[in-house]
Amino acid sequence: MTDLLPILRGHLAKKNLDAIVFNTSEFLPSINLRYLSGFTGSDACIFVTRTESHLFTDGRYRIQALEQARGFRVHVVHRKIEALSRAIKATHVNRLGIEGSRVSYEFIEALMRRMPGLEILPLARRFLEEFRLRKGPEEIAKIKKAAHIAFVACSEMLSSGLSGKRESEVALELESLFRRNGAGGIAFDTIVASGERSALPHGMPTEKVIGIGELVIMDYGCRFEGYNSDETVTCVPGTPSSDQKKIHKAVYDAHMVAIDSIKAGLKVHELDAIARRSIEKSGFGKYFMHGLGHGVGMEVHEPPRISPLGRGVLEEGMVFTIEPGIYLDGIGGVRLESLVYLGRNGPEIISEMPKELISVG
């Protein structure tokens, strides 16, 4: 996204940096490198000074880099670290900013060996995530597409019922349907947890067979052109019990009051408190054990972080989840998660699955 480069250069000047480096590899990928350059390959480095923009990669990605990294001078090299070192020397860089949370110690050590006088300053993750906090129209369209694919897949999967299926079987079926409907892959490892296991907020699917009358939490998402979706539904094969309906209502009410309260300028911890008070009034307060939500975009978990410890306010252009939950040991759990876009006219729910307690076969 070459239109971001002038903004990035402005930040370099404010922080008294001569340049900044983003590195991506098979072992430690950088979402920010992809966001800034458009390059989707698995091994590259971008080097941005106050006047120049360079991308270093290997021969596997020559054509791809030339097509994707518009606004960057592309260098096809054998040894990325050596080429970067030469570029740093040639541009007389003394103070270099790095993406502290995504550049390995090994990378920094190799750079320092070649340039012992170079001053390297790790930049806080918060500084770099600021660029991706508010989504543009193209980004919103991709997130909506991912959410729609997930909706179609989940609807199709539930049409054949859940009872008698293994949790792992349900997860595999859902992930296969993502691909069939045009997704680039899964956004994260699909969660399917049934019966007492549904009290595990991150219950990974097992070989357990789903029984009639059990609570089933399914938390899933897929990826479309680099952007993710994230949604959770709670189901019961057969007829839900009165206790299950009571738990669900407490979560549903918190979910809806939170969405109704969303507005630009609201502090994220205050939004969390609104949902938390709703669950506390229902008598289940101590069983809501995680934050209310998180941002979603090129990463499944990114700012804003909507929790008691969250910082900042909601802003137009943000995409985030609202996902209250109640988890009772020995009984089961309910979580309802919707993906929300805060637009000019207020919140828009992107997720399409119903948040009522879904009764299936």
Please describe what this structure looks like.
There is one protein chain. The protein is an alpha+beta fold. The chain folds into two domains: 2-132, Creatine Amidinohydrolase, Chain A, domain 1 (3-Layer(aba) Sandwich); 137-360, Creatinase/methionine aminopeptidase superfamily (Creatine Amidinohydrolase, Alpha-Beta Complex). Helix content is 33%, strand content 24%. The protein has ten helices and 20 strands. It has helices spanning 5-14, 31-37, 62-68, 80-90, 105-114, 125-129, 137-158, 167-180, 242-261, 268-281; strands at residues 19-24, 44-49, 53-57, 73-76, 95-99, 119-123, 185-186, 191-194, 216-220, 222-224, 227-228, 231-237, 293-295, 302-306, 319-322, 325-328, 332-335, 338-343, 346-349, 358-360. The strands form six sheets. The chain has a six-stranded mixed sheet with strand order 4-3-2-1-5-6, sandwiched between helices. A four-stranded mixed sheet has the order 8-9-12-20. A three-stranded antiparallel sheet has the order 7-10-11. A hairpin with a 6-residue loop joins strand 13 and strand 14 (302-306). Helix 7 crosses helix 8 (167-180). The longest helix has 22 residues, at 137-158. The radius of gyration is 23 Å and the shape is elongated. The mean pLDDT is 95.
User: Within the largest sheet, what's the order of strands?
Assistant: 4-3-2-1-5-6
Helical percentage = 25-40%
What separation lies between the terminal Cα atoms?
47 Å
The H-level CATH homologous superfamily of the largest domain, spelled out, is Creatinase/methionine aminopeptidase superfamily
How many helices?
Answer: 10
Any guess at the CATH architecture of the largest domain? Answer: Alpha-Beta Complex
Strand content: 15-25%
Whole-angstrom Rg: 23 Å
* SS content category: alpha+beta
Q: Judging from the principal axes of the Cα atoms, what is the shape? A: elongated
**How many structural domains are formed by the residues?**
2
Low-confidence stretches: none
**How many strands appear in the DSSP assignment?**
20
Order of helices and strands: HEHEEHEHEHEHHHEEEEEEHHEEEEEEEE
Mean pLDDT: 95
CATH class of the largest domain: Alpha Beta
| CATH fold name of the largest domain | Creatine Amidinohydrolase
Q: Main beta sheet, described?
A: 6 strands, mixed
